[in-house]
Structure formats: C-alpha cells, structure tokens
Design goal:
about 400 residues; mainly alpha; 16 helices; about 75% helix
C-alpha cells in the first residue's frame, strides 16, 4: 500500500532529479537572456519544492494535522508556483509585444515606445510576491490573535489558510490568462512567417498552461484533503511537474526558441512597416491620426492582387522553406502589404501556402500518376513526404494516395 511518507519521499527525489537536470542543462544552447532567466526561475521552483517535501517528510506535519501542514504548503507552494508561471511567461511575453495590434495597427503607435522583448509588466512581476506576502500576513495575524501556540489547530488559522488558498487560485488564474493570451500571439507570429504548420513546437506550452490551470484547482484539494483522494491528486501534481520541467528543458535546447524569435522579429518589423506606410499616406492625403492601417485601400489591394497573380503564374510558391519576407520580396511588395492582404482574405501566410501547394499537388498527381509522394512533395514545395501527407489530409480530408486512386477511378 502506498503511504503518505512514500509519496513525500518520491516527491523529494523527483524534485531533486529535475533540479539537477535544469542545473546541468547545456548553457551554450540557451542563447537568449529570457530563456536563461526562465531556467533560473524553473530551477528555483524545483528547489523550493524539494525543500518543501523534505520538510514535510522529516517534520511529519501532515501527521500532526491538516492545519499544520497547510501552513508550510502555502509558504512554499505559492512562490514555487509563481516561479514556474513566470518562467513560462518569459518564453511567451515577447511574442505578445511583437504582435500586439498586428491586425489593426494605428498611426499613433509611432509615438508610443514599444516594450522590449521579454519585459514583463509590473503586474506580472508582483502578483505572485503580493499573494505570498498577504497570505503570510494573514497567517501571522491569525497565529498572534488566537492566543494559542503557532502550530495549534484553531478556527482563526483555518480561516486564514482557506483565504490563502483562494488567493493562490486567483494568482494561478491570472497567470493562466496571461499565458493563454501570449500563446495566441505567438501562434499568430509563427503563422504569419513560416510556410508550414509550426504548432508542434508550442504544443508543450499549451499543455503546460492547461496543467497550470488545473494546478490551481488540485493544489488546494491536495493540501486540505486526506486519505486516498489526496494521494491520487498528489500523484497527478507530480506527473504534471515532471512533464512541465522535462518539456521546458527540451524546448530550451531545441531550435524552437530561435525560430520563434525570428517570427516575433518579423512581426515587429511588419508593424513598423505599417506605421511608416500609414504615416506617409496620412501626410500625403491629409487623413486624421488613427486611420486603420491594417485595411488596404481598394487601389493598393488591386496592386497587390496583380503582383500576387504574376507570382503565382511563375510558381513562386513551389520553393521549399519559403519564409514570408522572401515571398513578399519575390512578389515585389512589402511584408506589411502581403500580411494585410492575406488577413483581409481571412487567412494566415502558413494557411495560404498550404492551400496553394495542396492545389499544386492535386494537379501534379493528376498529371503524373506514376510519381511517388517524395517526388510530388519536392515538386510542390513541401519539406518532405510526411509534411505533404499531413497537410494534404488536413485540407482535403484524404491522403494523396487516396486522392490519386479516386482520380484514376474517375
């Protein structure tokens, strides 16, 4: 039978192993300042949890009663959760800045300084510490006013602990909202830059955000609960913490951060192009400040459509690894005009390229039924046959092989 002491010992070992993994992560692969800071925060969180579970195990507070254990839980879990949340936020915060108002760029943005990449707001920085300080203050006041020893199980302490748990859930809810909005902005930056689906590199963040949200619900249940359900919830928390740290380490040493940074930089430059173009148009036509630069005029839209039609006729989209800046250059228009034109059509650059290449693949399959998927992928601009098959099925609902069979039968 699994006992509480066994679970606590397992947690100590797990947190120590995760701490060692973070400490010995190859630093030369972590190039950005934000990523290095995020690793330090994640390491601090695992070290706090290792100390927390070690104290619970050696002092036997859970065996003394729920109240005594909850006091230590709140004191250690709030800052640990804050470290984890802020570490993930550091990896996504710059994208929300880079793509802010990417859909509707206003002329007044020229007069407003841009926030630096990776810089968190004061609310992001101080929500966690404020929740911890308020919780500790409530516990201290409750312990001093009840007239009982510190570890006594009193009504005042129980009320303070429940209030602290509510504050913890509110803190986690706030950071979950910040993570979600930043992740959406990051996906927009990627889909406006790369010619293939890149959601896979951000999937761990999506799952981690969901886990952090569930953590806000599970931690209070674990620290106040007893019996078998408490052990089950604790096991779920351990599993999520392992997934969070392990995925975080894999992400930092992968090419994904550099790719995301390139997409974010492109989004920032597109925004600057829009501001400059709108400033020139306002100066030339005498329009008022605040004109929506994300909407192209009918004349500009016509020019873009003519340039795009000529580029399509040349088969420019069949280049493998065609990034949005290169495509705009080949077409002969600015990145901003290409992005705005696509947004007016309700598609992102990634989706547009996928549609163009799938249509080309259908024509190629019809004209060359003897070609294999590798040849079709190379001819149409897909990175490889796997990307061809995945993209083709996503858009058409069937595989290229099935499409060929249906075409031959027809």
């Amino acid at each position: 039978m699994v006992t509480l002491q066994m679970m606590q010992f397992t947690a100590v070992v797990l947190m120590l192993l995760l701490t060692v993994k973070l400490l010995f992560l190859r630093g030369r692969h972590i190039k950005s300042r934000q990523a290095r800071q995020a690793r330090r925060l994640m390491t601090g969180g695992t070290m706090l949890l290792a100390l927390h579970f070690a104290l619970q195990l050696t002092m036997g507070l859970r065996l003394m009663g729920v109240t005594q254990s909850v006091m230590l839980n709140l004191a250690m879990l709030i800052p640990a959760s804050y470290f984890f949340a802020r570490a993930v936020l550091l990896l996504t915060s710059s994208s929300s800045v880079a793509t802010r108002q990417n859909e509707q760029v206003l002329l007044r943005s020229l007069l407003r300084p841009l926030q630096r990449h990776g810089e968190l707001s004061l609310t992001d920085q101080w929500t966690g510490p404020a929740v911890w300080m308020v919780t500790m203050a409530m516990l201290a006041v409750a312990a001093l006013t009840d007239g009982q020893p510190l570890l006594s199980d009193t009504l005042e302490l129980r009320m303070a602990e429940k209030a602290g748990a509510v504050l913890y859930m509110l803190m986690q809810g706030y950071y979950t909202w910040r993570h979600s909005s930043s992740l959406v902005a990051m996906r927009h930056a990627l889909s406006d830059y790369y010619d293939r689906d890149t959601d896979g590199m951000l999937r761990w963040m999506q799952y981690s955000i969901i886990g952090l949200m569930l953590l806000a619900l599970m931690v209070p249940m674990a620290i106040f609960g007893t019996g078998t359900w408490m052990l089950i919830i604790a096991f779920a928390i351990y599993f999520f913490l392992f997934y969070l740290v392990d995925s975080f380490c894999f992400y930092l040493v992968s090419p994904a951060p550099e790719r995301v940074q390139a997409a974010e930089q492109n989004a920032t430059e597109v925004k600057e192009e829009a501001c400059r173009e709108q400033a020139a148009m306002s100066s030339h036509k005498g329009t008022e400040e605040g004109t929506d630069a994300a909407l192209l005029s009918p004349e500009v839209t016509h020019e873009v459509e003519q340039a795009v039609a000529a580029w399509l006729a040349r088969g420019g989209y069949r280049q493998t690894g065609l990034l949005q800046p290169q495509a705009a250059q080949d077409i002969g228009i600015s990145r901003y005009r290409l992005t705005a034109w696509l947004h007016q059509r309700g598609v992102k650059y990634t989706e547009w390229m996928a549609q163009l290449r799938v249509e080309e693949a259908k024509r190629t399959i019809a004209a060359h039924p003897d070609w294999g998927n590798d040849a079709v992928a190379q001819h149409c601009g897909f990175a490889d046959r796997t990307v061809l098959q995945r993209t083709f099925k996503k858009i058409e609902g069937i595989t290229p092989q099935k499409y060929m069979e249906n075409h031959v039968e027809y």
